[in-house]
Amino acid sequence: MRYSGLQVLWQGLTGNKGWTPAWRDPDPKPEYDIIIIGGGGHGLATAYYLAREHGLTNIAVLEKGYLGGGNIGRNTTIVRANYGLPGNSEFYSHSLKLWEGLEQDLNYNVMHSQRGIINLFHSDGQRDAYARRGNAMINQGDDAILLDREGVRRMVPYLDFEQTRFPIFGGLYHPRGGTARHDAVAWGFARGADQRGVDLIQNCEVTGIDIENGAVRGVQTTRGAIRARKVGMVVAGRSSQVAAMAGLRLPIESHVLQAFVTEGLKPTIDNVITYGMGHFYISQSDKGGLVFGGDLDFYASYAARGNLPMAEHVVEAGMTLMPMIGKATMLRSWGGIMDMSSDGSPIIDKTHIEGLYFNGGWCYGGFKAVPGSGHCFAHLMATDQPHPAATRHRLDRFTTGRGLMDEEATGSQHNLH
Ligand SMILES: Cc1cc2nc3c(=O)[nH]c(=O)nc-3n(C[C@H](O)[C@H](O)[C@H](O)COP(=O)(O)OP(=O)(O)OC[C@H]3O[C@@H](n4cnc5c(N)ncnc54)[C@H](O)[C@@H]3O)c2cc1C
What we know:
Blueprint: H1 5-13, E1 31-37, H2 41-54, E2 59-62, E3 78-79, H3 88-100, H4 102-106, E4 117-121, H5 124-139, E5 145-148, H6 149-155, E6 170-174, E7 178-179, H7 182-195, E8 199-201, E9 206-212, E10 215-221, E11 224-233, H8 239-244, E12 252-264, E13 272-274, E14 281-284, E15 289-300, H9 308-321, E16 330-341, E17 347-350, E18 356-360, H10 370-383, H11 397-400
Parallel strand pairs: 1-2, 1-11, 2-8, 4-13, 11-18
Antiparallel strand pairs: 3-7, 4-6, 5-6, 9-10, 10-11, 12-15, 12-16, 13-14, 14-15, 17-18
Bound molecules: flavin-adenine dinucleotide.
């Protein structure tokens, strides 16, 4: 079924009885050409682009829970291409261009809203760093505008500009940045992959990876063994555990990141704002809730809920920046398990085991990467060659030390920055 305004009107007039399920619920076949482990944003996007760009359709996505139940449905939905380093710069630029045509491509409303992002700075040093980053973005072909304090004030007058400790000096504005509805992204890719013949198999946990003579042969699952010539591991916060099934030790730690949402309010914040002197970023959802987050809980954990000290820190930072939010009631908070690589940048690569591929280490920036990651990982799995936009995301950079992409200059343990 093709979705359109006319379809919505027709279904509305005929009692909404004609809608069909967005994807099938097949049983696993004994064998596929390609298995993708993980039905999150990256896994579903990979399957979609394998089918759409490379004509490969004998594919299964194996998901241990339900599609979109992981981080893809837990994030704060920020989409941007404001990275500074070669490697990340071209990759995220590629991803943002895919976002810009995604709804037409998927025939699905993912509510992509390019409402603009303002990264605030509060010192001369931060201004210099943002000016450098903005120039890198412009060189890459993306958009960046350095705002002074009055420029920021014109756009977001409700901030506390006179904070005694960290007054606002200005901001780096990225007009093409914004937000999207996170779980619609999973659903849109799932529907698009299913329509092209990909089997999306839920409640199917991979418990082992079969390897013979240095080549992958398939996987063991809670729904039986499934053979495949190629297997892609795309499991975000569970990367280390799944890779260990193939005897691999990854440069990744799993950490919890929290998010928070208030009650629905009238339109208040019409862009995304990040605070430069504390862990805090905020936007307003289309339902009206203020959606905000901060940083990791700062210790490794597989608990999908966060600790109270970080909740307190985030709320304090929010109150410092925009005291008005103290009047809103917070409805919920939750956590997601992040796959933190040690240079803070992702990995899209083959492993030393023939037919076994790895995609992960997205840290807290993996939502904006979903279309780009799926596109590049599908290219790698189909052709065995890295996509031109993802040539630097190699696994061996952590053993050779060459090509590390330490975007935030935080040293060898990005997760402790
Ligand atoms: C609170 C929070 C806020 C965030 N905010 C942003 C943001 O604003 N912008 C941004 O760009 N990024 C953000 N992120 C990061 C982003 O959400 C993640 O980097 C990205 O979603 C991870 O990729 P994914 O969607 O494939 O992961 P997931 O959705 O977690 O998918 C992985 C899937 O693998 C499955 N799986 C695991 N093990 C197995 C197994 N053994 N067998 C089968 N299936 C398995 C899991 O069940 C899961 O569904 C945020 C993350 C969190 C938690």
